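User: Structure tokens for this complex, please. No commentary.
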Amino acid sequence: MELQNYNILFLYQETFALTKRLFIQLKRRPSTLFAGILQPIIWLFLFGALFTNAPSNFLPGVDSYGSFLGAGLIVFTAFSGALNSGLPLMFDREFGFLNRLLVSPLTSRISIVLSSFIYITALSLIQSLVIMLMTFLLGYGFPDLLGLGIVLITLTLLVFFVTSLSLSLAFILPGHIELIALIFVVNLPLLFASTALAPISFMPNWLGWIASFNPLTFAIEPIRFAYSNHLNLDSVALSAPYGDLSCRDCITSLFVLTLISLIIIRPLLNKKLG
Amino acid sequence: MHIIETKSLSKSYKSVKALDGFNIRVPKGTLFGILGPNGAGKTTFLKILATLINPDDGEVFINNIDLKKSPRSIRELIGYVAQDIALDKVLTGRELLDFQADLYHISKPKKHERIESLINQLDMKEWIDRKCGTYSGGMKRRIDLAAGLLHFPEILILDEPTVGLDIESREIIWNLMTSLKNQGVTIILSSHYLDEIDRLADYVAIINSGKVIDQGSPSDLKNKLGGDRVSLKVKEFSNKKESEKVKEILANINGISQIVVNVSQGYSLNFIAERGKDLINKLKVELAFAKFEIFSLTQSQPSLDDVYLQSTGYTLQDAEISMAGKRDLKKESKESMR
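Assistant:
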């Protein structure tokens, strides 16, 4: 029992140290933090301006394109941050710093992965909150307390899902060039093939099908719903080609996807860190 | 008592055999040198000891613990200083040591005390609060060494710790190694610097192509050669036929043994001449009789390089030169990446 207590204490100590290192890096090189905030703000202004005259009755549940776009950009911010989460680990692998961690008598090497999850979740949530404040200042509203809860839960699930994939890629791919290339290839197409910028009703049938299976859509629609401030978790949030999904369905789908991704990456992490 | 023992250790990277039936026994509390040219398998062996890579075959016991079965227990015993220094450029030296101490689960008061003591011991006070990205090679090596020593390891594994260092840093590291050894720490030191191993090591294993060629104390290994090392050249640039003839002459002189033709040094002949037999004069007479002139003749006390030459047929320097260009270090690094 005493040994178990020690192990938990040690696990906390090593996870705290690993996370603290990532935050020191962020403090001394804050460009990733600012870039992650700046990019969606630019999108908000540019896309917001581009579709100012879009007929509002075409956009479900909102009165302006800016209000519609806000949820998409909040999710995009968290998604982009999480997609990049594998990069610090990849650099540690490439420059040999990971070996420093691996020769240390860590209680569990899962602490290496856990610290990345904690760091990227905190970073993504901070960035997303800044975007939420920005959309609020632009007059696109702010969710109530329950809505805020939905936003945080949805974003956390999405960040966990994408981070697990990104960390796996950081172990599978041979170097950071390949990882960055893959991030470039995946990032924007996934955004465009979701309901971030336009509702499914605007899309051709084939794209509507893709968008309605896109994990980003499962995150965007509950958040868009949370902004409407008349939350009913069982109301229809997404009219997909295969049927209507409620807010609860979307979050459940995201939860299942996250769970599956965490189960899938476990053997890989065991192999690489074991 | 042997603190480290390996049995028939093998490790391959695709088609390259890095270790091939590697057997070593390291007595406790000694400084054990691993001497060999680049590509001989030194780093692979040390990475196995540090639990960074798994052997394909064979066994490793450290302090009677099976490395394959209990790698975490091994990690508590060892401090590892890698050949390529990997520091976080953004952290200061002190932050890095603090970080490393947390990974070793050292309590807060002990951690600060230990870090201060290492800062003083390795003379790092002036620059410890600067970011690691600004450090010179010597500073990086010292901070890396300090990180490996934080938890008072019983075994310190050093992979070529003085390569490319200035004299001051080298001297500090050498003194530290001697002091640690006197405190009972077992040190495994890999190097291709003969003088370093000769000066510091109690025992040495000479390795080549993933195999241990010979091991023992440096003086025993040198004494095993049985006399003085002589290097002879009959022409500045001789040839195979000529060198074979000279070899024949030498072989017939009683007291001359272990004759090796060193092709890379212009077919020079290296051999051991028993002391006290005036063999050099006999040799001169025999060569003159066979109408050979002497271009150069040197006689010296045997060195570890002679031990290496005797076992492999070429000097350590020749082995380094022959390996240079053959290795794709980037590829090797990728292949050994986790």
